[in-house]
Amino acid sequence: MSLHRSSFHSLSIGFLSLGLLASFTFAMGCGSKPAAGSASSPSSSSGSSSSAGSSDAGSSSSGSSVGTPIATVKLPDGVATVGANTTTNTVYVLDPNFPNQKTGSLAIVDAKTDTVETTVSLPAYPSGIAIDESTNMVYVSNYIANSVSVLNGATNTIVANVAVGDAPTSIAVDPATDMVFVANLLDGTLSVVSGKTNAVVATVPVGNRPQAVAVNSAAGLVYVANSADDTVSVISEQTDEVVDLWEVVKPVNGNTPPPQRPFALVLNAVSNNLYVANFTAGTVAVLDGSTGTIKTTITVGTEPNGIVLDNTTQTLYVSNLYSESISMINAATGVVEKVNGFIGVGSSYGIAVDSVTHSIFVTENHVGDGTVDTFYGTLNVFQGMTN
Hints:
Structural class: mainly beta
Number of strands: 30
Radius of gyration: 19 Å
Shape: globular
Helix content: under 10%
Strand content: over 45%
Distance between the termini: 34 Å
Number of helices: 0
Order of helices and strands: EEEEEEEEEEEEEEEEEEEEEEEEEEEEEE
C-alpha cells in the first residue's frame, strides 16, 4: 500500500509504519543534519497578488491526456528525486537508502522499455540530481556525505566525487557554461563547481536554509530559494556574487505574511518567468525572472514539493505531497487546468518531465502487506499534455 498522510508530519516525512523516522527536515528548512546511519535525515499565507486557479478545481481543458500510469517500474528500495535525459531516453532515480543512510544508489531506467538498466552505488543520502544533456554527465548531490557525485551517462560510471558545503540538497547545471550549482542547506551557501575540472571554483553565501536552485542561462543568473527566509537569492554567474534578493510573497496591509517555505524552482525560458513552489502556503509564486516582481500567485495542492515544466507544451506540473496529487498549470495563462487528474499518484517524492515524449515521471514509496517486499519504491510514468 502507499504511504498515506497518516504516516506524515507537516515538518517531516516519517516512515512510522516501518518503525523508522526518516525525517525530511530540510523540506521545511528546520532541524539538524543527522549522522550517517542515524534514524533521521532529509528527503528535496496569503499575499496581495492575484490567485489564478484553485486546489479545489477539478475541471480540465481540451487536449488533456493525463490519467492512470502508462507504466510502473518497481524498485527494490525506497525512492526520492528523479531526473530525465530527453536526449538518451534515460531516467535516473535516487535511492537515499532510508533504513541506514550510510550509502545510497542511483537506478538507471530505460524510458523506452521502462526497465532498470543498472544500479550505481553512491555516497550517503543522495538528495538532488541535475543532468547536462550536452555532455551526458549526471550530477548528484549527497546530503550526508557533503559531496557531489559525477556520473558519465555514456558508461554509467562515477568519474568524480566533489566535496561541497554542508548538507547539499538541490543541484542545477548550466549547459552553456558547463557550471554546476549546489545549494547547501545547513551552511547557507551555494557551491559553484566546474563541469570541466570537477572542482569547486566558488562558494557564495546566500540566505537561510537554501532549498532549491535554478539557472537562467540566457541572463547568466542563478536563483536560490531560501526556505527559512521566504526569499530567492539571485547570483551572477560572471562574478559569483549575490546581485539581488527577492521575496516570494507580498506583505498584506503592511503585515508580515505567514511562512511560505519555498521548496522548488523552475524557470520558463520562453516567458522568463520563475516559478516558486511554496511548501507551507500551497502555492506557486510567479516571479519576473529579471526583476523579481511577483506577477501572480497560483493556488495548487497541499505541500507542493516539486515543480517541472514541459517546455514544448508550456505546461507546468506540480507534485503536492500532502494531497497526493499533481496540479497541471497552463504556463501561458497561469490557470490550473487539472488537479487530481493523475490517478494513483500517492505521496510523490520526485517529479520529472520529458519535453519530447511529454512523459511525466513520479516516484513513490510503499509499505508491503506481508506478502510483498517490506519496503519498496516505484517509478510511475504518466502521459502528460501533448498539445
